[in-house]
Fold this sequence. Notes:
21% of the residues lie in helices and 24% in strands. By secondary structure, the protein is an alpha/beta fold.
Amino acid sequence: MKTLLIIDVQNDFMPDGALPVPNGDKIVSIINEIQHKFDLVIATQDWHPEDHISFASNHKGLSPFDEIKINAQPQILWPNHCVQGSKGAELHPKLNTLKCETIFRKGTDKEMDSYSAFFDNGHQKSTGLAGYLKEKGTTELFICGLAADICVYYSIRDAVKDGFNCFFIEDASEALDKKSFKKIKEDMIDMGVKIISSKLI
């Protein structure tokens, strides 16, 4: 079973969104073009309550992109984004979701952040995605979306730990910080992840 996992292609991560990823809108057409090549397509959404612990607005005197510790874990504080039920939390209107079998939502617990599609950042709570994929018979997992250096990367790390054979579709993803992403790609290769172009699927 060949599975495509589309991470957080949401309005708030677009260039005009609350937490913009440069060129985030450019990947939508590429993702649409490749979906027919997969047996199973799944999407994820950041889905935060307004009082989420990762929002700088919920920490007096602190600003977006400040770093603090929460439950002994390093935590970057973000602008309010992907608030449950908001326009910003919706998937990009041009993203084709007809082939998506289901959508997994993450970051729903106000007390913990959740970059990965599989677990919260402290690995206390599973989203159930790994079990779902295994039950469906997924053998090859192709991952793309936003942001490549954060939610896509953390999802790939957990997928590898769970034993999935992972492929990162580079041209169907965009990073928030392109400089740090060079090191992250090296890390992916060290984990055994294959970095590919959408044209090679």
